[in-house]
Sequence to fold (288 residues):
Amino acid sequence: MASVRELRDRIRSLKNTQQITKAMKQVAAAKIRRAEQAQKRTRPYAETIAEMLSDLVAAVSVVDHPFMKEGKAGAPHGVILMTADKGLAGAFNSNVIRAAEIYLAEHPGARFYSVGVKARNAVRRLGQSDRPSWVLTGNKLETARAVAVQATQDFVAGQTSAIVLVSSTLVSMMSQRPRTLPLVPILKEGLASSRERQSGPKGAVEFMPSPEFVLSALLPKYLEFTIYSAMLETDAAFFAAQLIAMSNATDNAAKAIDESTIAMNNARQAAITKELLEIVAGAEALAG
Fold:
């Protein structure tokens, strides 16, 4: 059984840990509001660019763009793995990394582009230490543009046959799920089916100078913005996961403090009782 001093030191350490987790919980709660607001601001643009892309594909007869063609046969897939830069968020990063490992098992030889420090470390553990990597923090729009340019160059050069995004989605404050989203090649049939699912009247749209020209300029922006939107959602999902993890850690620390306090009181009472028994036994021995 631990001594009173050991239990007192344990309680002090638990209280210090509880203060840290409580502070991180408050920081995550403040940051998730800003991350959600940034994500909501980009949603109308994402919906508009997807609708415009569907209209353009329906308006052109022949699409002469690498994104609308099948990749080089036999080339490996390119996987954009996106995680957070930091941990202390439960299984948030490990779930996304596990989804990437499952995809790698289904598509051997896939080449990774890592966004986030945790993703970079995971890619290095997979034996691809020479692959390009970026951090999630900082100027996200510049990072998304750099990732899109690198992935596009490899796809056009025939080094990869497809571009796939593995990231996390924010289902709710309590749930964040990894997703595997194919980005390139963009299948015309898939865009046509998504266009058919859209309800409501559609107005006539004219594209200048031509639908083919606008589509060729829009496709790179579509890839770039999809990556940028995923970065914003990863940010929001990470802070939501961290908020839940730090809340649970704070509650667990409180329970451990209560249990250690009870154990310390019991140990102190046992020590007092033992001393009283020794005093009484010594007094009886002197009297006898």
